[in-house]
Design goal:
heterotrimer, A alpha+beta (168), B mainly alpha (375), C mainly alpha (347), A: 168 residues, Immunoglobulin-like, four-stranded mixed sheet, 8 strands, C: mainly alpha, two-stranded antiparallel ribbon
Amino acid sequence: MKAISFRNRSFVVRSILVLVYIAVIVIMLMTGKRHTILIDNKDSEDGSILAIDGMSIQIDNQEAWEYYPGDRDKAVVQGQRHKVRVEILADGKIVETAFRVPLNQDMVLLEVPKLLAGVEPYLRPFTVLQEQASAPAVDTPQSIQFGGDAVVPPDGSPDAPPAPVLVQ
Amino acid sequence: MSPKKKSAATLFSEYAVVIIFLVITVAAISPSGLSLKYIIQELITRLGRNSFLVIALLLPIYSGMGLNFAMSLGAMAGQIGLIFAVDWSVAGWQGLVFALLIGLPIAVFLGWICGKVMNKAKGREMVTGYILAFFINGIYQFFVLYMMGSVIPMRNASIILSRGYGIRNTLNLESVRQSLDTIFMMKLGGFDVPVVTLIIIALLCVFIVWFKKTKLGQDMRAVGQDMAVAEAAGIPVEKTRIVAIIISTVLACAGQLIFLQNMGNLATYNAHDQTSFFAAAAILVGGASVTHASIPNVFIGVILLHAMFIVSPLAGQNLFGSAMVGEYFRQFIGYGVIALSLVLYAWKSRKAIFNSRSDLRGGAAAKGKDEGGQA
Amino acid sequence: MRNLKTFIQEFGWPRIIIFLFLVSLFVLAPFVGVRLDASFSDVLNRFGQYAILVLALVPMIQSGCGLNFGLALGIVAGLLGATISLQLELRGFWGFFGAIAFATPFSVIFGYFYGKLLNKVKGEEMTIAMYVGFSFVMLMCIMWLVLPFNNPTMVWGYAGKGLRTTITVEGYWLKILNEFLAIKIGRFFVFPTGLLLFVGACAFGMWVFLRTRIGTAMTAVGSNPDFARASGVSADKMRTTSVVLSTFLGAVGIIVYQQSFGFIQLYTAPSPMVFPAVAAILIGGASVNKASMINVLVGTFLFQGLLTMTPSVINSILQTDMSEVIRIIVSNGMILYALTRKVKVSK
């Protein structure tokens, strides 16, 4: 390969292409990343703000759901900018706000009572101690070429033939 | 050379594979009990899902390297990209583009290695590619089963195995499922047609046609026809072959992503195993040979092969009372058609060499002792 | 010093690396709690198990047909022989040799047609062999379901027909060779004398055969076809003979394997047995068109040694099962190495 010269045009072109490439990846990440918004209708920790009794909440263009005190539900969204529309059932008051989900956070907690009371921040990051959702014990992938090690157990039930391995 | 009239036998041998397939498939439609509407819808879906991968085989054939059984290298690259996309929760078509952009450099690198190896095994590219696919599969498994989650930090714990490292055996691709297909799913005459997917495939065909006209494309054709002559004409034979394989691998990467987004889940350790088999079978059924393949071969092949795959399991079940027989029959035909095509091709080319030699000798064809073969 | 250098060049770095790796595994074994005597016993067993399958590759390599990726045909012939022997309730040595006897006509017929096919496609044998092998195995899958066997130990209990996926040979000829004149030292070490004698006899037989007139003709066809033609040897006939011989040995090989392993494995099992054999002979130093007895024996030993020791030792060290991945990388790496070596082309 010829030595890389830093001056000529093709180097500049190539560097620009690389930067564009990385930029597209980042854009994809930003617009495509999924976040889960946990919508919360609980009293705040210090009891100063109370949960609302009966309201309808809609995130972006999704279905609107009703919330009563103590309810928590989740909405899965893509991208970072979203809007929330709250309609209080009792008096018909409507509040709409836009907010941003941080790129790094997979899950955020939206405390609606705080939002309505005008208390910031009403959006908190939320991490779940995810139990390894019973992932099946790893079956060392059987290579199609070698058919796995020669530890073949004799067929358990000599009754019914096993279903064929349907490939694709 | 005296012009030879094409006898019925020659015609049959040229289209043998296509004819056999048509006969078997049509015969199996009625015993399968499947409605024509169902079959056609399935075919439309499978066209969208598989064609891209089959097109990836065109350039290596064009460059004289035979069937690129090592296309699964590209598939593995795409899968790694996809694993990262799922890990970062990038959904929708953005997830696919993300996966593609991550997988591309890997695909280029693997394609480069493949090209280099194949250059060292000239005359044996197909077997070498086949074995190389298994070899890289081993490395892929090492990477995905041991390094991801341990040495390579993963964000999303739910895709990791319970032991703490290594990706799970099946990944639910619900986040990107059908994202390409459903961007614009058109309802045409009672069928669902994934428009964007088909447009992308069409664009690829246009690209291939254009590419064959470029200098690089012409170089590949020359290399494919005769390496020595191409070398004498000043074409960098080794480099051209490597480029052909790299392009093929990259296309396989994208093709596998299209395939997986339609399937909806990823069998992390197995999904790429049969990729090259199905693609090679399709293109051969479509009338291609180891040295000649064109775009019509791709689509005819996908339709014929998959039509057969759709009807034969149920036909086998109803005819023989056993689903297994249908499944085995399907695989028998699948492998058999590749073997048959390869045999027909090799036989024809040997006959052609023999005939041209005997013509040069003035018609007194040397009877009896053939020369020995070279593996 | 020059001799050492040439030796290394001829032997090839990959093989040296594998050999050293294997030795290091043996050295490590006692330190990680793996019993050396049990390991040796295992390795010897597996060596004997596979050796004849590897030996079966030799005729076709010598005659220029390349690596017999279609060995599955010979294996299927052996399976037919074994199942028939079981169906007829033959036991002991009768059963074992009966299986071989029944397998012989099948292997000869399969080999004959397969050989004729390969002769028509000189130059592309290996790829075609693979796919012919795969499709034939699939065809046999249908056959195993349909053929009229009815020995209760062999068929599915529910329907009463159709063979099971794995059939035990216990009670028939399990380990009949292994235990013949076996030497037992301590609780863990069994020297499978009968097995190794049989393997040795076959290897010796092949060695002698290659020096007979037919054997030399076969080799000539593979290494110097012009000379062979000039001497009046029909390349096609020699190639077909080599294919038949290879298929026959494949049948014998799988029967030897089964008596040691204990099970007859039907359906899709033959296909994955071919690659280990190919890898073994290549590890032993064979090339695509030249193979000797040393290649067979050394290669099988190294390969099976690797397959036996890697799981036990590495798993004890790393507390994880990496054996499958290592096996894939090593065996395919070896085949790749052989395929990419510069071959002295004699067209």
